[in-house]
Design goal:
- The protein is of the alpha+beta class and 700 residues long.
- It contains 25 helices and 18 strands.
- It folds into 3 domains: 304 residues, ABC transporter transmembrane region fold, CATH 1.20.1560; 104 residues; 235 residues, P-loop containing nucleotide triphosphate hydrolases (Rossmann fold).
- It has a 6-stranded mixed β-sheet, sandwiched between helices. A 4-stranded antiparallel β-sheet has the order 8-7-10-11.
- A hairpin with a 6-residue loop joins strand 2 and strand 3.
- The longest helix is centred in the first third of the chain and has 53 residues.
- The protein is rod-shaped.
Length: 700
Amino acid sequence: MFGDYGYTEEGKLGKPYNWRILKRLAHYALPYRKTIASGLLLSILIALFDLTVPYLTKIVIDRYIVASWHRIDLDRPGDRACRELKERYGHMLETDGSQAGYYISNLNMKQIDPVDLHLLRSRGILSADRFYRIGPGVETEGIPERALHEMIEMTDGASLIPYSALDGLPEKDVLKIRDGDINGVMVIALVFFFLILLSLGAGYGEYYLLEFTGQRMMQDIRLGLFDTMQSQAVRFFDRHPVGRLVTRATNDIENLNEMFKSVFVTVFKDLFILVGILVVLLALNWRLALICFVLLPIIFCLTLIFSSMAREAFRELRATVAKINAFLQERIRGMQVIQLFVREKFQMDAFSRINHENYLAGIKQIRVFALFMPAMELFSSLTVAFLIWHGGGKVIQDELTLGTLVAFIGYIQMFFKPIRDISEKYNIMQLAMASSERIFEFMDAREIIPAPASPKAPSNVKGHLVFDKVSFAYEKGRPVLHNISFDIKPGETAAIVGATGSGKTTVVSLVERFYDPDEGSVILDGVDLREWSNESLRDAVSLCMQDVFIFAGRLADNIALGREGVTADAVREAAETANALPFIERLPNGFEEELGEGGASLSTGERQLLSFARALASDPRLLILDEATSSVDPETERLIQEAISRMAAKRTTLIVAHRLSTIRNADRILVMHHGRIREQGTHTELMALGGIYFRLNRLA
């Protein structure tokens, strides 16, 4: 585990770390709070549209399709029950023209207490006959005489016709009578169509805003992560493989984006829909809603079990994917070795085993989802079946309207979808939180070379380099350099030689300030390197390494590297000085030649000459060549030696070499052994000494 809280070996994040990660994410989301708020509002609007659809269906069915009225006889002299019922439900009743009959709509009947409703039916107070209401002001011309004869005039100008009177009427007559209902259905249909258009527009706006915000946030985090990586000391990159860093800046950040757009907003909308459904169901019929809610604990437990099983399966799958990635990366890079020793079958068997583990982990995840999804569908179907059985009976008994039952079924079916979505998004959230932890762990890393409080930038750099009692260790307790001191004068050409592991490259790293010495000082032109500004130091000192890195892109860009002040003329002059100009001019496009990754189209010697030109492009006062000629052919070595000879008079040159023949003309040679300078002098002086340098020459 990283620290007290974090990502454990089991892959589970501690709660305190969860909150720390969420706070960090909130920091990046803060500049886009208005956009996020707009997206959330649109999500709520879409959820409201979804919640409206079943209710519109209820309105269409109850008010227009199966609208009906029933007669209630509450004028029974001396009947106390009738008097109490009339006082309780009188506001729901309408009377006919004679003021002797009371009528109640099917919509109001569902508001009557079931006990009272049973009393009304058992005593014959509520008739079983159903009436159709014609609104006031509706023309009755053209309605058949038989239907008009049975019409009941109401005090508000409306009319009631028994449904039995409509039986057998021609379709055109029925349509004329129910013209108001048809118009009502059309109005609801238009409202529904309008809501669809609004939902479409809101959906587009929501998706665009959230994707836009997510991409901007990921862009900010990726820039911040890359900036953090660039500011780290070389020691940081010694501990972290390139593949891991690339994964942090690509896959892990994309996981964050997936959580934002697929989890954060979706879960918010799903929770809003769930709460909305519960509220609407209670408002429609709280008794039936409470009966349906009995299944909620079972669904909740099932979801928790699924989340636990899915998390475990997903963790195993991610682990096997990581194994495959690591295996492929290593084998592809070492393909020449595999083919050289004919180990294809052995590697194939090893990959087959890892691939089979990945297959088994994938099958385990599929089994979990294959169990959960049908289980949720089963509960959904059982709930709908129960509603049809129980609610259908209530509809038959006029205790529930048909529209309410249909709306209940629609809401229950809608209810299970957010639960499935939330369960599925749980794994994405776990992966994203783990990715967030890894990202912020890197962003919190502070393995940096400290910048001076008041950086110095000498204006006239001469290249006077001094090591004053310098000691250094990459790992505490295992020193590489021991109390080293030497002085290289401006314009002097010095060379460092020694066996492998003697500390030559470490000296170069300290001069470039990739590391700071543990003891002593490295001084350039009288100023400790720790007091130099980084930009001034890089302008004054250039390094040409043995392992040349070529960026994909224009050849000229590989020399200039985007440095200010390095013009096209400076690039050409550096290439000419480095003896790289002849091979560059032989290329089809010269300095405009597009190089592939690693400069694969160039030979080793050409890449080395290009690196040499890169080091000279800024006209440094101190030029360091770290084994710069160890991997080139004699002809290229001759070209480099000529360039070094031309430039040595203008600048201080420090050469680290294995080929002792290349540094015989150096003004001074430092001989290192086990992290100490054992000998120094010219080639002639050291050969006469007969010590370490003499033995190295005999072995060369």
